[in-house]
Design brief:
With about 300 residues, the protein is mostly beta strands. The chain has 2 helices and 18 strands. It is globular.
Length: about 300
Amino acid sequence: MSKTRQDPETSARPLGFRLAVWTIPFVAAYFIIRALPVEPCDFLHAQTYNSAGTLDYCGPGDSAFVDLTRRSWPINLDLKPLDELRVGEPCRFRAEIRQFDGSPLDSADVALSHTKKIHLLAIDPTLEDYQHLHPEPDSIFPGVWTFSLTPAKAGEYRIFFDFIPLRSPRRVLLFSTFEVGGIPGSTSGGERLAVERAGYSFSAKPLSSDFSPGEEGYLIFEAHGSDGKPAQLQPVMGAFAHLVAFDDERRGFAHLHPKENLTPVEGRLTHAGSLTFSFRPPASGHYRLWAQVRIDEQEIFVPFDLLIGT
């Protein structure tokens, strides 16, 4: 009996077909997963939900100081004042933000982080006028965000945008500047770790004396009323306190949150007692620390001065 000889190409087709059948679904799944939005909590912190049931990143954050003269993100920021810039007078601003591919960064593209889409930090040359604002998306033009700011000092202000794109596992930090007419002052220098403000006593003191450049150190923050008892801290942006650190050159900042990670929830809307913040200063020198708290429905900004390695 003679055997029929199969063509090699014909016999190979079933194997190639089987490989394609097995491979295509995996390739398709890979690209589908890549296309899905990345929740910031998947990378940065355990998932937390606000009172509305919406996923909101409210973790302790990074203790490092981010120097924006050395780091940059492929996102374009175009900032324009809409009014004349004068000390003591409100000015409206228009910020247009475009992603790396040129598409507008709209509200739907940004994750909630500490109850807000974008955190805007503004600081003047003296480090005395610190403002924390939250731009709102324009209802007509995609990628346009608006806010109003009243400068209290003269000179070149630096503003920092802090947000988390939904398709990115990391924060994005952008900065810009604007000039307010007049003669700018200078930083005060020196160390100040205890401050009286709005009828309360505040302190932010190092946990130990070995606060060194490039290494993580700890600050103990406390607030007391006139009776000497710990003040009842109320939630502000999903935490019981925030701390921001600037260097004299305003090259960047560190946005810090309590290490205790006491996320305000139903039934626990105040906190009395100390809070621990970690901070990793990049170099020796003077740092202005601004605490932001809420007590008796009053939002209070408290300045501290910390000297590192001097």
